[in-house]
Each structure stands twice: as C-alpha cells, then as structure tokens.
Write a structure and sequence with these properties.
The protein is α/β, with parallel strands linked by helices. About 55% of the residues lie in helices and about 5% in strands. Helix 1 links the parallel strand 2 and strand 3. Helix 6 runs antiparallel to helix 7, helix 10 runs antiparallel to helix 11 and helix 12 runs antiparallel to helix 13. The longest helix is centred in the middle third of the chain and has 55 residues. The radius of gyration is 35 Å and the shape is rod-shaped. It starts with a strand and ends with a helix.
Length: about 350
C-alpha cells in the first residue's frame, strides 16, 4: 500500500482535492494509474494491491472514487463492491471498474453490483482522466446536494422545535391563566404535571405517552375560566347550586380544547373531562367507574389532589406531605385507582423533590 498527500494552495481546485483509491493486484497497473493521476494534479491518492485492504481503507477515508479491478486473489471485485455497498447503504459510491474483460456478462454483473463506469485495459491516458473527472464531478455534486439537504433538514428540525416550544409555552400559559384565578403563583400546574409524568412512567406507560401527559396536564382546569368569580373565589363552602356551577368547568374545558385533531389536544381534552371522575363511579361529569376512566385522567386526579392538599389556599392551610399521602391512600379503591396509588407511593421522593423545586415561595 502506498499513500501520499500534498497541500493545495488553490481552494477552488475541488476535483484535485478528491480522495482516490486504486485497487489492482498488478503493481504495474497501480503504478501507471497513480502516475497519470499525479501528473494531472490529483493529490490524495491511496493504492493497494490487496483486495482485503479495501474495506478498512474506505471506512477510514471515505474515498470520492474507487478504481477497482475485477479479477484479484483473496477477493474479487464483485465481493469488494458488495462490501462497499453494505457499508455505505444508500450513499453514492463511485466505482470505476478496471477490466480487461469486455464481455457483456461481466459488464452487466458489474453494473448490477454497483459499478458506475468502466476502464478497459490497457489504459488510455485521455480516457482514464476524462472518465475519472466525469465521475468526480457527479460525486462532488452528490455531496453538495447531500450537504444542502442536511442543512435544510437541520433548519426544518430547528424550526419545528421552535414551533413546538412555542405551542407548549402557549399551552402552559393557558393553564396558568386558569390557575391564577385561584392560585397566586400558578406553580400548581407545573408541579402536578411533572408529578403526573412521573406517575405515568411508574405505571409503565410508554415514554412518549408520559411526555404527552406532561404537556397536556397543565390544561386540566382550563374550564375554570368560565366559572364566575363569586363562585370560584368564594372562601367558604359552596352551596348545592354553586357546586353544580363549579362542576361545569370540566365540560367548559373540554369544549375549549375540542375541535383539533392533534394527539396533544385530544389528550388534553380527555384529561380536562375525566380528572374529576372517581374509581367508585361517584365522580363527575359522567359518573365513570374503574377502568372506564381513561388512565390519563386517573393519573392526573392523584397528582392534582396531592398538590392541592399540600398547597396553601385562602380558605385552607397546606397539609404536610405525610397527611396528603395518607389521604391519597385512604382514597384508594373509592376515589382513586388503587394500583396507581401504590405506584404513587413508590415515587414519593421524586414528588417531594418537585414540590421543593417549584415551591410557591
């Protein structure tokens, strides 16, 4: 194997900067091709007379063109082409086959295996340089197109990320708009949504679903926007008529969130509509029971109640974490899904860390 490289002082000389690999078991052929190429100004030429060295050489340098003999010991050109095709997959591998055989069968098989062109032995200087130049022009154009596509894809992904972040921020702010009406800081939705995500993960939901719950849960009480202040902010206990009005916030929230076919909005609507249902069927608005209640609604119900219990309100003191956990456990099998309550107990350290990180103070 022989490799030499020189530094070009001409940045416009893209073709002459191309990396070329010459593979032929006849040293005289290798030497001739290398001399022709160097005399024409090509600077990055690697040669080998051993077909077994082609794959490691190509893997290391990713040559722009491979001049490949067909009849070689150890591995023939067809085996080498198959290895290169497997390595590069759908990429454009410029293979220029060197052959003294001109029969149609050999040429057809070479084309089927990935050859792009042929050089017949003995070599003609003009033909060698012209075919190599033509193939390199295609190769460099292919590389530029790939680079442009990568840049375009990067920009699309970046723009998509920005749009998603903007959408999620709007969702969070909508949730806080509702919470600010009866929660001075609005941190409740941050805490309960993260608690719900952890609980969903503990329950074995797919990570993608857990992420959706994190982003959909902040809108669980968006329907409070439609509840009159004299009821929503009443410091004392609501009477029967006021309570019926208060319960309407779930339908109001579902109506606000309906009409869009994105998975996130559909899940947000489901959570808004079902997080006040109870395991024993005594919840609202539809009196669903057990697993009739979507699991996302059951998850948010636990996270919402726990954070509400441990948060101070104008009409109540904040419960301790121990008191709140005990209340959640008492509700297992009647208010809450007992299996989810058990999972909630296992993630209590994470829940308390969330409360600490997003404290109302």
């Amino acid at each position: 194997m022989n490799e030499q490289a020189q530094t070009s002082n001409d940045p416009r000389d893209d073709l002459r900067q191309a990396k070329i690999l010459v593979v032929d078991d006849e040293p005289v052929n290798v030497a001739l091709l290398e001399r022709l190429l160097r005399n024409d100004g090509y600077r990055h030429i690697t040669t080998t007379t051993d077909a077994r060295e082609v794959l490691p050489l190509y893997r290391e340098q990713r040559h722009d063109i491979v001049l490949l003999d067909i009849r070689m010991p150890h591995k023939d050109g067809f085996q080498v082409m198959a290895e290169l095709r497997e390595l590069d997959g759908e990429d454009y591998v410029p293979l220029l086959v060197l052959t003294a055989q001109i029969d149609a069968e050999t040429r057809i098989r070479a084309l089927e295996e990935g050859a792009r062109d042929f050089l017949d032995k003995p070599f003609d200087r003009w033909e060698v340089l012209t075919r190599i130049r033509n193939m390199l022009e295609v190769r460099l154009l292919h590389k530029r197109v790939k680079e442009q596509n990568r840049e375009l894809e990067r920009r699309v992904l970046e723009r998509t990320r920005e749009l998603n972040e903007t959408r999620l921020e709007i969702i969070r702010r909508l949730g806080r708009a509702a919470e600010y009406r009866d929660n001075e800081t609005g941190n409740h939705i941050i805490r309960m949504s993260q608690m719900a995500q952890h609980l969903a993960r503990a329950a074995g939901l797919p990570e993608e679903r857990c992420e959706l719950i994190l982003h959909a849960a902040p809108m669980h009480d968006i329907g409070k926007i439609g509840i009159p202040d004299h009821i929503l902010l009443k410091p004392g206990k609501l009477d029967a008529e006021e309570w019926e009005i208060m319960k309407r916030h779930v339908q109001i929230g579902a109506e606000i969130l309906s009409g869009h076919d994105s998975e996130l909005m559909r899940l947000a609507r489901t959570i808004a509509l079902t997080h006040h249902e109870r395991w024993d069927g005594k919840g609202y608005p539809r009196g669903l029971a057990g697993e009739e209640i979507p699991i996302e609604g059951r998850i948010v119900a636990i996270a919402d109640v726990f954070d509400a219990l441990t948060s101070e309100r104008p009409y109540k003191r904040a419960w301790s974490a121990e008191e709140a956990v005990a209340e959640i456990c008492r509700g297992a099998g009647n208010h809450f899904d007992p299996r989810l309550v058990a999972h909630f107990e296992t993630i209590l350290p994470e829940v308390l860390a969330i409360r600490e990180r997003y404290s109302d103070d």
